[in-house]
Amino acid sequence: MTEEKCPQLVDYFVVAGLDPAGPWRPLDEDAVESVTDLAVIARGLGEEVPEGFTCIERTLGGHSAELSAGLINNPHLYLCYRRGRDKPPILDLGVLYEGKDQLKQGWYVIETTPYSRSANLSSGGAPTAHRVFLTYRRALDSQGLHTLGVTDIALLLPSKGEVAPHTFCRVDKNLNTGMWGPALYVCYKRAVAKANALVYKASEYLRYPEEDLEAFPLPESVPVFCLPMGVTVESWPLNTKYQLPVFSTFVLTSASGDKVYGAAIQFYESFSRELLSERQSVRLGLLSVVDRRPITNRSLQVKKSICVLSHWPFFTVFQKFLTFVYRYSISGPHVLPLEKHISSFMHNVPFPSPQRPRILVQLSPYDNLLLCQPVSSPLPLSGASFLKLLQNLGPENACTLLLAVLTEHKLLLHSLRPDVLTSVSEALVSMSFPLRWLCPYIPLCPLQMADVLLAPMPFIVGVHSSYFDLYDPPTDVVCVDLDTNTIFQSEDKKPLSWRSLPRKHGKTLFNTLTNLHKTLEKICTPGQEEATLEFLLTDYDQIYRSQKQLELEIQEAFLRFMSCLLRGYRTFLLPITQAPSDTTTDCSSLFNLQGFLKSRDRTQQKFYTQLTRTQMFTQFIEECSFVSDRHACLEFFDECVQKVDVEKPEEVRLIDLDETHSGEHTVFIMPPEEPQEPDGSECPALYSYETFPTLRPDLFERPQDQLRVPAKGSAGSAPSSPAPRRTKQEIKLAQKRAQKYSAVPDMWSKCLLGHCYGLWFIYLPTFVRAESAKVRALHTAYDVLKHMENRKVVLPDEVCYRILMQLCGQYGQPVLAVRVLLEMKKAGITPNTITYGYYNKAVLESKWPSTSQGGRLRWAKLRNVLLAVAQFRQPIRRRQKSGSVGSRGVTVSHLLIYSKMLLSTSFVNFTSFIFCPLTSRPAGTRDTAGRNKVVDENYNNVSSPSRGGLAGKLQQLLTPTRHRVSLSVGSDLDLTDTPSPAYPLRRSWDANQEGTGLEVNGSVLQQLASDPPLSVTADTSLHLSLSLSLSLSLSLCLCVQVLMSSCSLCRSCNSLVYDEEIMASWTSDDSNLNSSCPFCCASFVPFLNAEICDFGPVSRYMSSLQGSSVGGAPQVTVAYLSPLVLRKELESLLENEGEAVLAQPQFLENHSIIFWNLVWYFQRLGLPSNLLQLVKASPLVSQFTQVTHTRPSVPVRLLWDTLTPDTDQWPPLYILWRIHSKTKTHSDTQQQEPPLSEVLRWVGMNEVHKAVTLFLDTLAKQPGSPSTQRSLYREFLFLTLAAMGKDHVAAFDKKFKAAYTRLSGTLGQEELRKKRAQPLSPKAIDCRRSFHPPLEC
How far apart are CA 291 and CA 235, in angstroms? Predict the structure, then answer.
């Protein structure tokens, strides 16, 4: 079997930058120069501001900025600074308390003014007073130009209410240490110290593949996100330190809400001066201003970016791959071109799957990366990193931002690390799950899109911190600095505080995050990114599993908070129960908002009021009310809400890792093979690059079998057809329930029964589609639901209700959908998000019937009148009734009417007119020649034994008695073989109808055959006419029948295991096909046997004795599957091949195991289906040329005993009884009573222990130690069933159990167990009771 293609990991490879051939679009960016010099001047002593310096005369609030305001002899000191590019920039500012602080290495002290006076900021009069000086730290000459440098300086007076502006760092040391004057502090702003630069808009000029993928066209805005601050052309001094590449990530959101993840590396490479104009060269400092003389001590560099786009957020893997590609381009020479490595990674590296959870990609002999399967979680997959969220924000700020997200504030995140921006932004929108952020969301916003910060709506935007070098943030925006862990809010608004969250739940969240933050500081250590091959293979689980676990614990803390926050929200959803109007879909019509607010604590009203007014909450209510692509996630959240509804929700685990698909299997992906010369020598290295090369399409490898690209909206899309699709949470919950009920005997059978009904509802869309009266079929399904409620069936999920609701919407039956919802609530089941969505869709989109009273009401009234008149006429008809036929009291006139109807109507219509109780007394037959016939275990005619072997065994316990009178006159047809109608009637599965002629395994003809012979008081020709009519109808309609049995042989102890014993031994594992033998406890796979044969008498034992099947009838043997296993296989089949496969003729041949198991269970429960119509078209019935195509389907008989008896074993007692009852003659009535009759007499007298003792003694006296395949319980049960009828089965269980208890005292339980004399287990008895009525014997 070929393995299914995996989704492609990488969709596009893009090179973004400045196209040499392209137009260059400049960006308006005025580069701010860094501060290179500081000075303190004493204006009171006549000092002036030095040339090129700027004096800080005012504080931020407009007050005087004198540094010496507290001195007695005030020299009026002021701080001055100068910007420029002639020196390395100043990196930090500080304050030195001489004698108290020690000067750090690399720091400089401003001890004097430019005029050589002291720059001491304190009064030096007191001998113990320490001096105060300003200090600074400068960058090294060899340090890169793109390091952080001071770009602005300010002074502030906290006593005047002044605070440091956003992105400013305050030095927490008071400059005024004197006795007078307010405290004065210095603050400064740091930004990237840029060289002479020109900024242009990024453009895309290289990509692979060159054509757009059909499922995912390449967005035009990708280059802008690769270089969000634009493409810079810069001139550097020749001794500038080499700049390392910068990794960044971004997220693109399509119009449909699908996310595309991008990973990019920005780097510098040399740029040709010939591409610059004279004006550009002058601005970059490459030409002198006066004489335009070239300046040769500077180099020209340009920024470029390489990027990959994917639907999967494997940012770490993409970073390693892009780093390898960049290093490959700057090294060399190489044998293979760069294009070979790019195409190999894109086409040969698949998405990790359960079959290959770990993929080790060998990029080169020295470079590798490990790709691991994501954690299987019901939460949506995203690029969020809760570790980075907590690491960069801390517990308090993380809770504060959660409040800002829930109340939809404007959030502006900024950092100097672009990759951190995306990870933290994704975590912000993920921690409010299940609420989904609907407003603008740009984790890494390019400079050209900065206008979004002026939008009059909430947003979450991330920008590079250099944005504040050019612009100031709007006043109504909450700014979050991820580098300094600070939140800046406007002064005119009340600041956000995490204490505004609901007190109890907010405090629990804060305490949990605090503990996790302490653990995070211990776990996260630097230096783990550089990993060798040995590290990846040996230490991966040990190093990274703790981080993965901590990531889930942080995410679970937020999920627990949201579950407690919205606890009980489903009880306030308002279902649509009337014809829709204009306001039906409004949130106020779908949700009881006032009731929800009243259910919350009074102190939390303000927060909940703000929450319910947000777009997120409105969208959440709509998604819960209608069909949504997030139905699986919402269903998981509903389960979390149920889990936290306890006293201590913090102790409940909400996210259970799915370790079923985890494994240690690692797939190795080798690098591209290097070509060789014809003589076997290595090829010369021809590929060397000075800059990142222009990709050549002819060098890319295009494999013939490319990986599949994920279709748009393929993840988590809602099903468009009624085909059932259980979510992972529903499957997991069903497994837990099955595991729980498997230990409870009386619940296990109901669990199996619930899965059986679930199988039928999965088949229901196919059945309804094939029916002409579709509305009637839907009402039949609704009656099945009511019947399930009456029988207290344990349903594993809501699929039964959901499918019927969806079909109601498909066929326009909104009223029936409302009735299904009411039936669901009556059963105590609260519909989950998926079911509730399909319900509202059905009642909203369907056409409702008119509410005005029309002709239908009048016809209903007339119908009621006629029914009332008919009820009054019944006593009169009873008085006029004369003449009866047999014990049924059927009149001759009635039989004449029935015979006419039989000749003019179908057999099924005829059987629907007779409602007579069914009995199980066997009736014999006599042929026209007067020869005796016997009946086997299936009520089939068997010729008299005429040879040794089995015949000799049969005669050991038999003596002949008198004959019985046959029912039929002049006909050889054995009416006991007449099967039930192929389609059960309306109430064939009703428990109150048990034992009637409407049963699945019973029919009117079986009743007539089981009754005493008819005593016709009128003309005998009536009886002959009726028999001929029956024979004619059966010969026209019933030509083929299907016999099925689940009786299986245990090879370990050679014992037959029957249906209820197999059911009781099944496990709750939906992948386990085994059952266990109740006698030797060995595991075995039970089989389901089906035989297609001619309708009519079947001689089972005699045909086996002759060594051939019945008339060469074909037999099918398939594995007998538990309903849990069968449901899993059926759902997998529908998922892979679609729902139409259930109606195709190939279904029987290609999926015979599923087919015959479905037929078995549907027949057991009397549920209608069209599966048997596929049997007529199959090759199995091709030999039966008399099959008529007018009959809807093939009749099925479900047998209790095996279809293939072993003739070497001792025959069962019920076979001997039937043969004995047919072979007795009048002349032998005075003979001694045989042991079989005596055994039956003891059973009838409630002396089962004597019957068991007699049977064991009889077996012991037989020569050759005969062996039996059936247990003693089964022998006496079948004998009771054959001789006394089905009504005595339940009473027999109690009798045999009492007999076993009595015999245990004399023979011992161990001896009885060896003889297989133990009674049926309570679990097996309950299985038989649940799957009533019993099978045929």
Answer: 19
* 3 state SS of 7: strand
Q: Is 758 within 8 Å of 1127 (Cβ atoms)?
A: yes
Residues in CB range of 1124: below 8 A, 6 or more apart: 734, 738, 752, 755, 1066, 1068, 1069, 1070
377 vs 1212 pLDDT, higher one: 1212
1053 has pLDDT over 90: no
- Cα 1169 from chain centre: 29
Q: How far apart are CA 404 and CA 488, in angstroms?
A: 13
Burial environment of residue 106 by CB neighbours within 10 A (0 to 12, 13 to 18, 19 or more): exposed
Of 804 and 670, the one with more pLDDT: 804
Round to whole Å and give the CA distance between 3 and 177: 78
Residue with the bigger pLDDT between 694 and 13: it is 13
Q: Record the tokens describing residue 383, joined without a space.
A: 């690029």
Q: Which pLDDT score is estimated for 1020?
A: 37
Measure the CA–CA gap between 180 and 198, rounded to whole angstroms.
50
The model's pLDDT over 445-478, given as tens digits with 9 standing for 90+, comes to 887 788 888 888 899 999 888 787 777 778 888 8
Mean pLDDT of 957-983: 33
Residue 718: predicted pLDDT: 36
Q: What is the structure's pLDDT at 376?
A: 57
Q: Among 648, 640, 390, 601, which residue's Cα sits nearest to residue 502? A: 601
| Bigger pLDDT: 3 vs 283 | 283
* Contact yes or no for 1223/958 (Cβ under 8 A): yes
Per-residue b or e along 27-47, where b marks 16 or more CB atoms closer than 10 Å to that residue's CB: bebebbbbbbbbbbbbbeeeb
In the predicted structure, residue 545 carries a pLDDT above the cut 90:
no
Q: Which residues fall within 8 angstroms of residue 1034, CB to CB, at 6 or more apart?
A: 907, 973, 978, 1005, 1095
Closest CA to 741 of 1153, 1158, 1123, 1297: 1123
Is residue 259 pLDDT above 90, yes or no?
Answer: no
| C-alpha dihedral, 1005 to 1010 to 1012 to 1016, nearest 10° | 0
Secondary structure in 3-state letters for 759-789: HHHHHHHHHHHHCCCHHHHHHHHHHHHHHHH
Q: Which residues pair with 1198 in a beta bridge?
A: 1044
What is the pTM assigned to this prediction?
Answer: 0.67
Strands (E), 785-846: none
Return the amino acid letter for 535: F
Is 15 strand, coil or helix?
strand
Structure letter (DSSP) for residue 496: P
Report whether the peptide linkage leading into residue 1235 is cis, meaning its omega lies within 30 degrees of zero. no
Q: Which residues contact 14 (CB under 8 A, 6 or more apart)?
A: 204, 206, 207, 218, 222, 223, 226, 306, 307, 308, 309
- Spatial strand order of the sheet with 441-442 comes to 441-442, 459-464, 410-415, 478-481, 486-488
Give the Cα separation of 811 and 514 in Å (integer): 55
Non-local (6+) Cβ contacts of 68 within 8 A are: 74, 75, 76, 77, 121, 176
Look at residue 999 and tell me whether its pLDDT is greater than 60. no
Task: List C-alpha distances in Å: 703 to 11, 371, 671.
Answer: 15, 21, 15
Lowest mean pLDDT: which of 281-295, 518-532, 613-627, 1186-1200?
518-532
Residues facing residue 132 across a β-bridge? 97
- Is 360 strand, coil or helix? strand
Contacting residues for 1000 by C-beta, under 8 A, at least 6 apart: 980, 984, 988, 989, 1163, 1164, 1165, 1166, 1198
Where does the pLDDT of residue 492 fall: very low under 50, low under 70, confident under 90, or very high at 90 and above? low
Pair type for strands 168-170 and 35-42: unpaired
Is 70 exceeded by the pLDDT of residue 225?
yes
Amino acid code (one letter) for 1035: S
Residue 147 has pLDDT above 80, yes or no: no
Angle separating helix axes 833-845 and 631-643, nearest 10 degrees:
130
